[in-house]
Amino acid sequence: MALSKRELFQKRRMRNRSKLRKVNAGRVRLSVHRSSKNISVQLIDDVNGVTLASASSLEKDLGVVGKNNIEAAAKVGAAIAERAKKAGVEEAYFDRGGFLFHGKVKALADAAREGGLKI
């Protein structure tokens, strides 16, 4: 029986997340979600179960509403790096979920690194 596209995505996401949790215990997680229209990212403290900071392409102050491209992802990455500094986070591990590390996801990660966040 063939798995659906969604089931394959879920398997990839859980495989990635379980491997990351084994080697990054105690660090903050930078979780990315990419839809067909937007991209969003959260800094999550898994120990306490709280979101420390977040950024999304839906935010009007970033100036990327309605744009689903690499430049929009880079602006979101820069915004999360700035908000991480305000929250006192310098280091995080990058949880790409089930998404491949290229295109918008890679642009977001690179912009967050350039903003001073150690991934």
What does the model show?
The protein has 119 residues and is of the alpha+beta class. The chain has one domain: 2-Layer Sandwich (Nucleotidyltransferase, domain 5). The chain is built from three helices and four strands. It has helices spanning 5-23, 70-87, 104-114; strands at residues 28-34, 39-45, 50-56, 92-95. It has a four-stranded mixed sheet. Helix 2 packs parallel to helix 3 (104-114). The longest helix has 19 residues, at 5-23.
List the helices and strands and how they pair.
Elements: H1 5-23, E1 28-34, E2 39-45, E3 50-56, H2 70-87, E4 92-95, H3 104-114
Parallel strand pairs: 1-4
Antiparallel strand pairs: 1-2, 2-3
Short synopsis of the structure:
The chain has about 120 residues and is α+β, with helices and mostly antiparallel strands.
